Amino acid sequence: MYRKSYRGFVIWLIVFLVLLFAICFLPVEDAAIMTRLITNLCTLGMAHLTWLIWRTESVYWYNGVSFEDAAKAGAERRKAYALRHFRLFGGYALVALVVTAAAQMLHLPWWVDFTLVCSGLIVAAVRTTAYKL
After folding, report:
1. Cα(13)–Cα(122) distance, integer angstroms
2. By C-alpha distance, which of 47, 50, 66 is closest to 4?
3. Which secondary-structure segment (H or E) carries 15?
4. R_g of the chain computed on alpha carbons
5. Distance between terminal CA atoms of the chain?
6. Could you report the per-residue pLDDT of 37-58, keeping only the tens digit for each?
7. Which of 33, 41, 58, 89 is 20 to 30 A from 111 via CA?
8. Distance from C-alpha of 87 to C-alpha of 4, rounded to nearest angstrom
9. Which residues contact 61 (CB under 8 A, 6 or more apart)?
10. Which of helix, strand or coil describes residue 6?
């Protein structure tokens, strides 16, 4: 039975915020490394959230999808819709990981990959608006 619950999202959000807060206490004195760690945590966190939505079929967690519409769509359509999101954000998280690692190895200023990663997240989010349940 398909039930409406935000429990998983709330747990994900709490863990994500705790990790973001905790990362600040790592013994890292280099601002570039710290910034890269935080940006990767954000992209990986978004990928994990989309994976969680795919696993639970909780597509109504996405803006613009009501629980009623999700329930009417059926399990197969919910899974397919959520998988498209996961592939996009999961793939982007891997790209961002490679970009930030390369930027660190090339000694690029932190703002270069920070700008690229943030812009990429925005582009990924906008691309999902074309996805239909």
Report:
1. 19
2. 66
3. helix 7-23
4. 17
5. 19
6. 999 999 999 999 999 999 999 9
7. 89
8. 24
9. 6, 9, 53
10. coil
Q: Which amino acid would we find at residue 55? A: R
pTM, rounded to two decimals: 0.93
Is residue 89 within 8 A of residue 124, CB to CB? The reply is: yes
Token pair listed for 35: 């910034």
Residue found by looking up tokens 């994990």 in the block: 48
Return the residue matching tokens 């990986």: 44
Percent of the chain with pLDDT over 70: 100
Query: What stretches of 24-131 show up as alpha helix (H) in DSSP?
Result: 31-56, 67-73, 75-105, 110-127
| CA separation for the pair 90, 94 (Å, rounded) | 6
CA 60 from chain centre, in angstroms, equals 16
Which tokens in the block code for residue 78? Answer: 């919910």
Q: Mean pLDDT over residues 59-71, rounded?
A: 95
What does the alpha-carbon distance between residue 54 and residue 28 come to, in Å, rounded to a whole number? 34
Q: How far apart are CA 23 and CA 3, in angstroms?
A: 34
